[in-house]
């Protein structure tokens, strides 16, 4: 498996747009269709927005995953913010959407194929996601 | 049109057909294909994408700016797609919870079931219908060795599952009482202590306890803040309220209750009920107590079970078949 890596840091709202742009272009290059490009971009947007709103500083990492069987994009959101106390709650449907806050993390999980989150109070949060080309 | 065989190409063909004919038939087909998309969990952004493909097939030299505007729509639909998936998930969860409550309700029914005792002295009818799945009303019959019949009717202030759970406690407390001719006031005093000790202070239970003794022909009764029942005097064809004072169960461990008595003649009836009966509503208006009595009077000549069924049916219809509160009605008729 070989991989390429791109990183973009998030601390202004404008950085969200830059992250979206970078992700969309990469997704297109890897060979995702229009709908999946839009889904990946929306997921990146949500992840970047979470960093901007709750951690104020962090980064989004993109990786192209290419093996013999499949091709995909890995999107990693890392921040050194306050961490999430109740992960089950933020992963619960309706917790963020009902307040109009957006798709939230359950949305990101739906938009991507793989999703994993590690969070430590006072240290920060790492979210790993992957979407495979169909 | 067979909804099973529909696919992406069908959508594109339908768009083509509609652009040409602009007839209602194709729009009807669009409705059918939308149903099949929903059934197969096709998300809105995918439909927009299909539509873009259809446009490109119909107009091979579709202007770039129109294409861009369609892509914009696709982007906007992603959030709707997510919301749609979330609603679906929540709907499934709701069904799960509903079926779980149904199981609990069945179990409650089984636990709290109290059969009407067979007795030559009284004709007894009872109906108890929960407003939701779980019943917060409770009734219980006890037949003593001396032939006496005890009837408890209770209502938990509050509805739903917490109320239903407390009811089981009341039942087991009553089952554990010694049978040796406890009087109605001591039964309420004992239950009061049980409730006071075991139930959340914000929850109250009202109860009316009546006991008929065939050897004296008298009804003995006590009330713990419960909706007063009625005595129907068959001779005068009149109703009288069964006045009884007493504090609701669970407020103060030292509460004591009074026992009242009433001589029953043949064909006299006793009506016990919960506020789900007296607080029936016609649209937003509560009905008057007199109106309840009128309805009961209309059916009181029937056998007791038939009478309670008819009264229930009357109020069920009055409330458009949607009970606002649990409804329990007991009629005892002295037949010898």
Describe the structure.
The complex is a heterodimer of chains A (134) and B (336). Chain A has a five-stranded antiparallel beta sheet with strand order 1-2-3-5-4, covered by helices on one side. In chain A, α1 packs antiparallel against α2 and α2 runs antiparallel to α4 (104-111). By secondary structure, chain A is of the alpha+beta class. Chain A is globular and about 40 Å long. Chain A has one domain: Heat Shock Protein 90 (2-Layer Sandwich). Chain A is built from four helices and five strands. The longest helix of chain A has 22 residues, at 34-55. In chain B, strands 1-12-9-6-7 form a five-stranded antiparallel beta sheet. In chain B, strands 2-3-4-5-8 form a five-stranded antiparallel beta sheet. In chain B, strands 10-11 form a two-stranded antiparallel ribbon. The interface between A and B is medium-sized, with 16 and 16 residues. Chain A: Pfam families: HATPase_c.
Number of domains of chain B: 2
Nearest-integer average pLDDT of chain B: 88
Question: How do the helices and strands follow one another from N- to C-terminus of chain A?
Answer: EHHEEHHEE
Mean pLDDT of chain A: 89
Q: In terms of quaternary structure, what is this?
A: heterodimer
The SS-based structural class of chain A is alpha+beta
- Major beta sheet summary of chain A: 5 strands, antiparallel
Strand coverage percent of chain B: 15-25%
Rg for CA atoms of chain A: 14 Å
Q: What percent of residues of chain A are in strands?
A: 25-35%
**What sequence of helices (H) and strands (E) makes up the elements of chain B?**
HHHHEEEHHEEEEEEHEEHHE
β-strand number of chain B: 12
CATH homologous superfamily placement of chain A: Histidine kinase-like ATPase, C-terminal domain
Count the domains of chain A.
1
Per CATH, the class of chain A reads Alpha Beta
Secondary structure: number of strands of chain A: 5
Into which percent range does the helicity of residues of chain A fall?
A: 25-40%
Shape of chain A: globular
**CATH class label of the largest domain in chain B:** Alpha Beta
- What is the makeup of the main sheet of chain B? 5 strands, antiparallel
């Amino acid at each position: 498996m070989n991989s390429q890596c791109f990183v973009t840091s998030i601390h202004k709202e404008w950085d969200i747009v830059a992250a979206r742009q970078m992700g969309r272009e990469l997704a297109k290059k890897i060979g995702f269709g229009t709908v999946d490009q839009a889904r990946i971009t929306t997921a990146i947007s949500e992840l970047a927005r979470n960093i901007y709103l709750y951690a104020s500083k962090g980064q989004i990492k993109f990786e192209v995953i290419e093996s013999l069987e499949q091709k995909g994009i890995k999107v990693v959101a890392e921040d050194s913010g306050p961490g999430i106390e109740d992960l089950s709650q933020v992963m619960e449907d309706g917790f963020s959407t009902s307040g109009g806050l957006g798709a939230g993390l359950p949305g990101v999980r739906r938009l991507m194929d793989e999703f994993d989150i590690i969070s430590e109070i006072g240290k920060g949060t790492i979210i790993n996601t992957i979407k495979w080309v169909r | 049109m067979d909804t099973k065989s529909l696919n992406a190409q069908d959508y594109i063909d339908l768009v083509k057909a509609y652009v040409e004919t602009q007839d209602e038939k194709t729009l009807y087909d669009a409705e059918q294909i939308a149903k099949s998309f929903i059934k197969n969990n096709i998300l809105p952004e995918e439909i927009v994408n299909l539509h873009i493909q259809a446009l490109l097939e119909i107009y091979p030299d579709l202007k770039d700016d129109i294409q861009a505007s369609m892509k914009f729509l696709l982007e906007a639909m992603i959030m709707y797609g997510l919301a749609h998936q979330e609603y679906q998930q929540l709907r499934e969860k709701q069904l799960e919870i509903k079926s779980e409550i149904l199981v609990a309700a069945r179990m409650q029914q089984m636990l709290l079931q109290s059969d009407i005792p067979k007795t030559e002295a009284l004709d007894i009818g009872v109906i108890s219908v929960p407003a939701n799945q779980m019943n917060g009303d409770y009734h219980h019959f006890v037949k003593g060795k001396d032939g006496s019949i005890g009837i408890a009717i209770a209502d938990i202030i509050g509805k739903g599952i917490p109320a239903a759970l407390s009811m089981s406690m009341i039942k087991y407390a009553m089952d554990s009482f010694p049978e040796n001719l406890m009087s109605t006031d001591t039964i309420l005093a004992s239950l009061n202590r049980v409730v006071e000790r075991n139930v959340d202070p914000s929850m109250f239970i009202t109860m009316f306890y009546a006991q008929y003794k065939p050897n004296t022909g008298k009804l003995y009764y006590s009330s713990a803040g419960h909706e007063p029942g009625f005595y129907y005097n068959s001779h005068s064809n009149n109703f009288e309220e069964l006045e009884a004072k007493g504090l609701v169960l669970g407020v103060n461990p030292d509460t004591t209750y009074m026992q009242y008595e009433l001589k029953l003649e043949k064909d006299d009836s006793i009506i016990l009920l919960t506020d789900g009966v007296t607080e029936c509503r016609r649209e937003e208006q509560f009905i008057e107590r007199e109106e309840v009595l009128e309805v009961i009077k209309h059916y009181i000549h029937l056998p007791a079970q038939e009478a309670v069924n008819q009264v229930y049916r009357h109020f069920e219809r009055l409330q458009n078949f949607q009970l606002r509160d649990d409804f329990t009605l007991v009629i005892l008729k002295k037949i010898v």
